[in-house]
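Contributing: when you submit paired examples, paste them exactly as shown. First protein:
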Amino acid sequence: MSSYQPNNLTRSTPKSVRNIAIMLLLIGGFMVISSIARAQRTLKLQDAIAIAQASSRNIKKSMLNLYGSQRSLDAQRAALKSRFALDITPFDYNRDRSFNDLFSRWNTNEMYNSFANLSVSQPIVATDGRISLINRLGYRDNYSEFQDIRTKTYSNNLYLQLDQPIFTYNRTKLQLKELELNLENASISNALQLLSLEQSVTQSFYTFYQRQNSLQISKDEYENQKISYEITKNKVDADLLAQEELYQAELNLATSKSTMENNEVLLQNAADDFKLLLGVDLTEEFAVEVDIDFVTRETDLNQALQHALANRMELRERAIDIERSQFELIRTKAMNEFKGAVSLSLGIFGDNERAPDIYEVPAVNPRVAVSFNIPIFDWGEKRARMEAAAASREIKMIDMEVEKNNIMINIRKVYRNLQNLENQILIAEQNVKNATLTYDINLERYKNGDLTSIDLNRFQSQLSEKKSIYADALINYKIELLNLKILSLYDFEAQQPVIAPRN
C-alpha cells in the first residue's frame, strides 16, 4: 500500500487551483492590511467636528427647520405678486317653479348658463389693499312660462376693483415681517446648534485625548518600573540588596501595570462616548491628534465683551422675541377696533344676442362703497388683553437684560481662567522639567545603591503626576479658548470673527 505523500499531492495539484489559492491569499492579505490601516486612522479636531455635523440628528432637524422657514417666506413673497385665476362653469341648468304675487299665478322658469371669470389680482403691500382686474363672459338661455318667451344672450362685464381697509394696521406687512423674523430665528438657532455641537465635540475630543495621554504616561511609567525591577533583581541576585527590595519592586511593577490597564479601560470608555457623539460605528478604531503646544494667545477682554454684545445670537433672539411681542400688542390693540373699508370699482358691461355685438350698446357700471366697524362696549376685554400683552413684552425686555449680564459675566470668568491657566502652564512645564531631572538623578543613585526602590517609585510617581498636570493644563487652556470663542463669537487664535457681522 502506498504511503501518503504531501509533496506528491502538491505536485499533482492543477495550476488553476494553485492560482486561486494564491489569489485568495492576496485578498486575505489585502483585507488584513486594510483593517490595520483602518485601525491606524487618526482624527484631528476639525475632522471630528465635520463628522459630527454630518451625522447629528439635531443639526438635521435644525437644517430642516431653516429650510421650512425659508420656503414659507418664499411662499409669502410669491403671494405678493400678481395672481392670475380662471374660473369656468361650462354648464349650469336650473328649473324653478314659483308663485308670482303681482299676477297671482304660478310660473315656471328654466335657465341654462355658461360663464367664465378671468381675474388678475395684485396685493398692495404699502397700504394692505388689493387691486383686481376682472372679466366675466357669460351665455344665458332663459325660458319663462308666464310669457312663453325664450331669451338667449351673450354678456361681458369688464371692471377694475380696488379694496382698501382703513383705520387699521397693515396686516400684509406684519405677516411678511413675522416670516422674515422666523427665518432669521431659524438661522440663529441653526448657528447655535452648530456652535453647541462644536463645543460638545471639542470637549469630548480633548477628554479622549486626555485618556490617550494618560495611557501613554502610564505606559512610560510601566517601562521605567520594568527597568527598575531588572536593576533590583540583578542586585538581589548578586546579594547587593535584600530580598525585601525585590518584593517591593515587584509590587511597584504590578501597581504600574494595573494603572496602565485601568487607563486602557478609561480610554476605551471615552472612545465609546466619543464615537457615539460623532455617530460613527462603535467597532471602528482610531486615535486623535492634537496640536497641544502652548502658545500664548493675545486676548482682549473689552474686545470680547463688545463683540459679544454686538453679535451674540442669543441677544438677537431676545430682540426678535421683543419684536414679536410688539406684533402681538398690535394685534391685541386691533381687537374690537374702529376700522373701515373702501371698495371702488369701475367697469363696462354689454350684452347682445350675438357675441360679436356684445358692446354695441355698452353700459358703464361704477360702484363706490364705504363701510365702518364701530365697537360700542366690550366689558373691558380689550384693555385687559392689552395689559397682558404689555406685561409679556416687559418680561421679554427683562430677559434680554438678564441675557446681556450673563454673557458679560461668563466672558469675564473665562478671561480670568485663561490668565490663570497661562501661569499654571508655565509652572507645570517647569515642574515636568524638574521632575524629569530629579527622576534621572535618583535613577542613577538607585543604580549605585544609594536609594531604595520605594524612594525611586516616589520620584517616578511624581514625574507621572507632573506630566498629567501639565497635559491637563494645556487642554484646559484650549477648552477655555474655545469657550471664549463661543461666548464672544470672536476667534482669538485666528484673530477674526466667527460669523460675518449682521447688517
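Second protein:
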Amino acid sequence: MLKPLLPQFDPANESAYQQWRQQKLLDYPTRIEQLLIEIENPARLSQTERAAMLQRIGKSNMAVFAGPGGGDPDKAIPRRLGAQFGLRSLDNNTGADDDGITALEVKNDSWHGQYIPYTNRPIHWHTDGYYNELTRQVYGLQLHCVRMAAEGGENALMDPEIAYILLRDRDPALIEALMHEQAMTIPENRVDDRIDRPDRSGPVFMAGPGGSLHMRYTARKHNVVWRDDDLTRQAVTALQEILNSDLPFVYRATLQSGQGLISNNILHDRSGFNDDDEVPRLLYRLRYFDRVTADRELDKQPF
C-alpha cells in the first residue's frame, strides 16, 4: 500500500497545487551559481553556511558546496557533512565499500566493468536507487568530488518537483499515469544464473517521508519496462523532452576537487570523461534512506 502524498501533489486537488506551484516558482534559481555555497570546514559547518545550504535545498531540493581539502580521500569528510543534514542511514548497495560509501572511479575488473558508473561512459538521466524495493527507497544523495576528470564528467541536475510541475502543466493525466503502481518495472538481475534482484515495479512519482514528492526514474532504454498503454508512453516521452531541453531549470556543472552536492535525490546525469592516468577521477557517492532535515538537534549528535 503506497503512502499518501501531500495535498499539492494530488492530481485531483487543483487549488492546493496552484498555491504550492506559485510559491515553488517564486524566485526559483535559474543558474547553478545560485545554488553554490562556499564552506570553510565540511565537518563542522557554521550556522550561516548550514542555513544557506538548507535554504537552497528547501527551494530546489539541492545545494552545491565548495570547500577546502580538495584531493583528500578521507571518507569522514562527506560522512560528517551529510550527518549535519540528517543524512545518516546509508544504502549499502552492492557496489559500495564496506562503510556504505561508493567510490566512483574507473574500475576494469569484470564485475565493475558491467556497470556504467564504474566506467567513463555517459550515464543517462536517473534518480539513484530506482531499482530498490519500494520500502527501501533512496531519499537523500550526496556527491563529493575528490579528483575531477582531465576532461568531461559534467553533471546535469534537475529538481523532481520542477519536472512534476512541467508535466502537470501539460496535462495532469500524465502525472496520474506516472503514479500508477505498475508504471515502471526494472527487470530481475541475474548473476551466474542466480537472481541477485527480482523484478521491481512501482510508480515514478510517489510519497516520500512526510508525504513529500519522491521520484524513481531512469532514462535507460534497456533493462526498464514501461507500462504498456498510450498515456504512459506519452508521459515518458514528455518527461524525456523536458530533461533534454535547454530550460533554465536544468543546471549543468562539472564538480571540481573539494566540491559536491547535497540533495533530496534529484534527477541527474553525467557526461563521458577522459582520465589523467596519473590522477584519475574519484567521486564519493553516498545514498541515504533519509531525506534532508533542518532539525537543529542534529548539531548535538555525534558524527
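If you have annotations for the second protein, write them as plain sentences, like these:
Residues 299-303 have pLDDT under 50 and may be disordered.
The first helix runs from residue 14 to 25.
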